[in-house]
Amino acid sequence: MFEAYRITRRPSRMGSLPRLALACCLALSASAAHAASAAEPMQQIRAVRAAHERAILNEFTHLLAIPNVASDRPDIRRNAEAVALMLRQRGLTPQLLEPAGKTDVPPLVYAQWKVPGAKRTLVLYAHYDGQPVNPAEWVTPPFTPTLRTRPADEGGTVIALDSPGATNSDTRLYARGAGDDKAGVMVILSALETLRALHDQPTDNLIIAFEGEEEAGSPHLGQILSAHRALFDAQLWVICDGPVHPSGRIEITYGARGDMNADLTVYGAIRPLHSGHYGNWAPNPALRLARLLASMKDDKGHVTIAGWYDGIEPLGARERRALADAARYDGEIRHELGLAAPESTWSLPEAVMLPSLNINGMRSANVGAEAANVIPATATAVLDMRLVVGNDPHGQFEKLRGYVQSRGYYVIDREPTPAERLAHPLIATLKLRPGIYAAARMPMSDPLALSLAAAIRSAASQPPLEMPSSGGSLPLSVIKQALGTPSMVVSIANYDDNQHAANEDLRLGNLWDGIDIYTALLMHR
Amino acid sequence: MFEAYRITRRPSRMGSLPRLALACCLALSASAAHAASAAEPMQQIRAVRAAHERAILNEFTHLLAIPNVASDRPDIRRNAEAVALMLRQRGLTPQLLEPAGKTDVPPLVYAQWKVPGAKRTLVLYAHYDGQPVNPAEWVTPPFTPTLRTRPADEGGTVIALDSPGATNSDTRLYARGAGDDKAGVMVILSALETLRALHDQPTDNLIIAFEGEEEAGSPHLGQILSAHRALFDAQLWVICDGPVHPSGRIEITYGARGDMNADLTVYGAIRPLHSGHYGNWAPNPALRLARLLASMKDDKGHVTIAGWYDGIEPLGARERRALADAARYDGEIRHELGLAAPESTWSLPEAVMLPSLNINGMRSANVGAEAANVIPATATAVLDMRLVVGNDPHGQFEKLRGYVQSRGYYVIDREPTPAERLAHPLIATLKLRPGIYAAARMPMSDPLALSLAAAIRSAASQPPLEMPSSGGSLPLSVIKQALGTPSMVVSIANYDDNQHAANEDLRLGNLWDGIDIYTALLMHR
User: How much is the pTM?
Assistant: First the structure.
């Protein structure tokens, strides 16, 4: 952990904070204390954070070194215990919450900070698990946190953690979870620490909730919340996850698309065949898969599956204005991503307010040096379906299944039997993966959310960009269904953080801004 | 090596064989000698071979344990030296031939057996290199030769090399190269050894040529033959490579399709993107590749690329009759491969007499446990194009390139630059791989070939199946171009040997039959 610190000149409410023992508090360096002494609240926050960047970075890299793929249960538990220790070191009393009757589930790390006289309670949420990794694709190992002067693909060179410029804003920290979403965990923990150093306390009671299987689709979050409902009596969840807008503007979003994934496999012969002895005659499953996928979208980038866009809840005028505001960046984003044209006729903000269908990955036999002269035996695609409010996930999946059937396929959810192979020329295995999120969205005009947004606005260097919903998915609907509580999302990671891909990185400037903004948010009036 | 052996009762021409020193000859076991004493030539050949199966198997597994991917130069050289030693142990004087001025090329292992009074010379060809391997896909490591009672996917269990039933005909030997084509090397070496044991010599002068980079497309075979033209003065090459017909009938083919491969990559954004934040808007290269591939063939399995089937040299009446004879097995093959229907409207023998276009492999990002919620940055397919007599390889490739361009792509042969990405919505990298074979075919009525075919017919338990051309590719055109010499192919491996794929295996019965047939072939009259 980074050392606790304190500032002496600011009016303190420390006396009312008995749960925050000061066992680990250390004296703040004289210069930072001086900078803070004469400053406005935001300047004080920034000074405290700036004085402790190296300690924060040190603590963060220790956390990032623990592998955090949700299916890797022993390591996930090590993460949970490390995060719980960090909460204890901040004077809180963490608990590891699990669903009733289960022990082999990534625990939700929970803590509360009761504020005498506070009338409302906020839940601060982040997740400590990360997407699966393919280490061969990384420039440095995903669980060896590594600093670079700039992004690796722009020629950034590796620098040591203790080198002079290590904490510069443009430094990139490479590791799985650096941006998504141990950054969120670290920002929340550092905001709590900054508050303590300021001898201040939050405006509202706080609940801290760090999930351990968000990237696996939060399969147990609803059960955990339901099993411990009394611990989550709150008015609003604030989710620290996801990147800021590509313009660099902090993004506040009032909802998130839902998400589900499906595995689709089609078949050729029962084994890979020599492409010379059978080429032109034995069916090639890679070609079959290509045909099946090719017709899923039309030339405008619109999904062709019958009814795909049916039943979507319409947006209000305020939400539509927000989309138009955000669309101004499309040209820049396209240019930065090296795209001559987008896939679809929609603006980017419009596109992410609609249900999507996307190929996450596709594979048949081998390419590159491992390619062989075969006709592959199978071809597989992983499909990603984002959902909006009004979509029933299972209904949407049934539309996909219907589409595959309409293309002449016999659709099953397991390997075909030999008899089925001989009876059906076209066979597809289509399976929904576990971890389905529905979409959720709260009104942009909610009074508590408006107050938090005002505090964020006061802390951010540019006006935040507000969006009715994130294109990405978060367990907002799970929270809504289990507890009835709405959620808003305040994102801090750099938008080019390669989240979900190889070489995920966090720009340190985003970490520092995030800490400032979350500290201000906790102090909203 | 397996021990040399001899039979005493058969009329011997050993006196005329000074090059075959008998240093390693051992006495044949009494029972085998007795069995051979009263037998016809084929029975003698079978008895000699049967008595030495275990020694042959032992020698073969030692050879298979040396990794043999052509790009792995140190191991390829170890193979060449092992094969040369085996030739020396048979009394021949091998040479390792390389192209003029090059030393880092898999050598062609060469030897000759001069027969006093012989008027013609046959070249016996096989290749000792194998297709690349992905060890993760193998049931046992590809270079740990392993016996199983039956095919692994039919429940065959591993048995030790020295177990009682190890040499049974139905035993499968798993290793890369077991079928394709160290089997060919071993059959030729064992046929020479059998001749020696019979105190006999071949009808024609023999040249032995074992190539080391056939699976890489024989990039240097032409140069090696041209540089050593005087060593290859012969009337006919006999190629021991490829599987027998699925019916189990030995296959004699008088040509082979040509072959070339191309790598095709299409692009999305410059990096993988979060499928939530960009889904529906950022182009997905997996979908682009799917569209490009999907329209390469029509519903009849015919390639749609303009002019794909132009210029093909027509078959003669004898060749057409052979195709009709072979087509009778289509239903059985389809059933055995678990296919409800073939891809195309052609019979299998007809299909492999036409130029093909096949997807060897396809990949975009990851599937399975490594799949992540991304929009991939690239998608790649490896394409395999088989060629027939009348096709110019580069002309055929230009048709493919023209097709990709006709689909709106800007086609280059390297990574796109940032400026190109912004200028062209659709960019494809299309590159022909090194190692291009043209097709070659000799007349089925060639007199020397007819004599060899008659000898094979006398040795085979079922009548051989004759085919105007193999669907697979062999360096026949390279030989024809470098030396002007025609080639015929006599295949011995089981047709379900998984050649070019994981879990390649040889059925031992095919090895034993192959030795018998090649010994008989060398003794043709």
Answer: 0.74
